[in-house]
Design a protein that fits this description.
456 residues, alpha+beta, Double Stranded RNA Binding Domain, DNA polymerase, domain 1, hpI Integrase, Chain A, 3 domains, three-stranded antiparallel sheet, 18 helices, disordered C terminus
């Protein structure tokens, strides 16, 4: 198609893919290269060629498209604007380049301003107080704990915040932490002191990871130097076991907690292991319960006595595998929907509430003596020690009892070279203890008190 000094919209619209690659004139110094899309649609990138001084330059005006591009009228208007600049002694191409450089400079300046702002913000965050740091830590990490960080908050409210809560976290030194530890140890609360130290270490580790502090003030304070926790030695006598089994139904505990305690007593497990039980690991036909992960990192197989089997059968009617994968599903709606098991602290706290001196805590059970026993306060973990102790009194060998408790042999040489398997003795141990519990529960009159003897 022949080029002309002027071109019309209709002529542009008449272009087709056969014109692709041609350079056409649009008049008044405007020209453009014809291009075609894959679908045959035509577009033209239009420039204006002009003389400025002794130099011929071109400046882009835009892109013409039949639909969606710059119109011919707009392109000519843009050309007229640039022509006015030339008439006024200004070079459009040079000014466009200057505008680009200015825009880039403005962008770099904005980036630097933002960087300075972030630096100032980081410095401000680094000066947040210990209380503010705790709130930040709680909202991001502590909330993942079963209690949402409630225990840590109570401990910090009592011993940490009064001492250092208003001090900038970046200014906390080892001396501050040691002062808190010394104050707590003066009250002889060794276990709680270690727990608070552990939480302080986690909190300052959180701050260290985010460059909110330069050093961890807890780094050189060792739990071992705080002192031993003090081992509990509470064992329920047979008469107390009988009394406990009789009191559970009227204690006000939910049925799941009652059966969890009975199952813990029968299997010598930890309350956390009981409450984390999954139906997929319980085989009532083979009388086996497998704990795939335990405190020592090894799987543990428990042979179920008739007493334990009965507990699982009752639990199936409460929350069977068709209702939940957990033997003890959580009661809280959110945790239930998240498919979480019942929290061990739920059982531990409700047991403590029913052995409390004085008035009940607000919102807690008023049956403060429902589980009180003659031998003094007891905790769920004491049931594990109770079962082990009574197995020894029934004559079971210590090695067998240790295996039932899933303890690792401390003697390295013995652990390596002693390859004996205790499966049958362990099965016998759980059976004997189950029969004893049935008798103590008044459900097996054929079991009689036994003198201490050795059982293979």
């Amino acid at each position: 198609m022949a080029t002309r000094a002027k071109i019309t919209v209709l002529e542009l619209q008449a272009l087709s893919h056969v014109d692709a690659g041609k350079r056409i004139s649009l008049g008044d110094g405007m020209a453009g290269d014809v291009r075609a899309d894959a679908d045959g649609k035509i577009w033209i990138r239009v420039v204006w060629r002009y003389r400025f001084g002794s130099k011929i330059t071109e400046v882009p005006l835009g892109t013409w498209k039949a639909v969606g591009g710059d119109s011919l009228a707009k392109l000519r208007s843009e050309r007229a604007k640039y022509a006015d600049q030339v008439a006024a002694g200004r070079d459009p191409a040079a000014e466009r380049q200057a505008d680009k450089l200015k825009a880039k400079a403005d962008q770099q300046e904005a980036i630097q301003v933002q960087a300075n702002r972030l630096t100032d913000l980081a410095a401000l965050e680094a000066r947040q107080t210990v209380r503010q740091l705790f709130d930040n830590w709680k909202s991001l990490e502590l909330r993942n704990r079963a209690d949402g960080g409630a225990d840590a908050l109570r401990a910090f409210e009592k011993d940490v915040f009064p001492a250092i809560g208003g001090i900038a976290s970046a200014d906390i030194s080892r001396a501050h932490i040691q002062q808190i530890m010394d104050s707590m140890m003066a009250r002889r609360v060794t276990r709680m002191t270690k727990r608070v130290l552990s939480d302080l270490r986690q909190m300052f580790g959180f701050a260290l990871d985010r460059d909110l502090i330069a050093v961890d003030p807890t780094a050189r304070i060792k739990k071992a130097k705080i002192g031993p926790d003090g081992e509990r030695d509470r064992v329920l006598a047979e008469a107390e076991v009988t009394e406990l089994l009789a009191k559970l139904p009227t204690s006000g505990l939910i049925h799941a907690s009652q059966h969890a305690l009975r199952l813990q007593l029968a299997t010598l497990t930890r309350i956390g292991e009981v409450l984390a039980a999954e139906w997929q690991h319980v085989d009532l036909e083979r009388r086996l319960w497998v704990l795939p992960t335990t405190k020592n990192g090894k799987a543990h197989t428990i042979y179920l006595s008739d007493f334990a089997i009965a507990e699982f059968n009752v639990l199936k009617t409460i929350s069977g595998p068709e209702q939940s994968p957990w033997v003890f599903p959580a009661r809280n709606r959110a945790k239930l929907e998240a498919k979480l098991p019942l929290c061990p602290k739920t059982v531990t706290k409700t047991v403590a509430d029913r052995q409390r001196d004085g008035k009940p805590l607000a919102g807690r059970s008023e049956q403060t003596d429902a589980l009180r026993l003659p031998g003094g306060p007891w905790r769920p973990h004491d049931l594990r020690r109770t079962g082990a102790t009574h197995l020894a009194e029934l004559g079971l060998m210590p090695d067998v009892i240790e295996r039932c408790l899933n303890h690792i042999e401390e003697n390295k040489m013995k652990r390596i070279y002693q390859r004996a398997q205790f499966e049958e003795p362990m099965r016998n141990a759980w059976r004997l203890w189950g029969e004893r519990l049935e008798w103590l529960d008044g459900k097996n009159p054929n079991v009689v008190t036994m003198k201490k003897r050795r059982v293979a």
